[in-house]
Design goal:
It comes from Flavobacterium urocaniciphilum. Belongs to the adenylate kinase family. GO terms for molecular function: AMP kinase activity; ATP binding. Helices cover 57% and strands 14% of the residues. By secondary structure, it is of the alpha/beta class. It has a single domain (2-182), classed as 3-Layer(aba) Sandwich (Rossmann fold), CATH 3.40.50. A five-stranded parallel sheet has the order 2-3-1-4-5, sandwiched between helices. It is globular, with a radius of gyration of 16 Å.
């Protein structure tokens, strides 16, 4: 079983790349953003709670995120592996994911970070916001707040996963096919 954590700042291309990787490697794609939106759309208790944070451009607290994610993993117990997109975002979440996977006799196989310049990503998100309908992609101040949250809470994951020997950085700028190829070169060697 292969379990990949795909992370990077909002707009780095995680969702786009996950679409290619899930098919190529037969992985179950677990996007915290999609899981949040499903729970919000269906007005679940966790969804209502998550919405209050998302609407302010803040990260959803670990306890809420972890409950949603564990439920999705359980729903897909027969999967050949998981592609975690947008999770973990904090050291506490990474430790919770490790503990959860260990309870299933699994582990994170690789953590791959899509790296890109903030200014390029801000423009990507503002463009996406014109068609996505997502309020958090239409306000530059909220986007920059998300980056500040990322720098404070998510960037420390780089050292966490480097310490486990399973961290890889990939240039997230270029043609989608070029980025997919960069990711595949890493995954094929796992």
């Amino acid at each position: 079983m292969i379990n990949i954590v795909l992370f990077g700042k909002p707009g780095a291309g995680k969702g786009t790349q996950a679409e290619f990787l899930k098919g190529k490697y037969n992985l179950t794609h677990l996007s915290t953003g999609d899981i949040f939106r499903f729970n919000i759309k269906n007005d679940t208790e966790l969804g209502k709670l998550a919405k209050t944070f998302i609407d302010n451009g803040d990260l959803v607290p670990d306890s809420v995120t972890i409950q949603m994610l564990e439920a999705e993993v359980e729903k897909n117990a027969d999967s050949k592996g998981f592609l975690f997109d947008g999770f973990p975002r904090t050291i506490a979440q990474a430790e919770a994911l490790d503990a959860f996977l260990n309870s299933k006799n699994q582990k994170v196989t690789a953590t791959i970070a899509l790296e890109a310049d903030d200014e390029i990503l801000v423009q990507r998100l503002l463009e996406r916001g014109k068609t996505s309908g997502r309020a958090d992609d239409q306000d530059e101040e909220k986007i920059r707040n998300r980056y500040q949250e990322y720098n404070e809470k998510t960037a420390p994951l780089i050292e966490y996963y480097k310490g486990q020997g399973n961290f890889y950085a990939v240039n997230g700028i270029g043609l989608i096919s070029e980025i997919t190829e960069r990711l595949s070169l890493i995954i094929d060697k796992l």
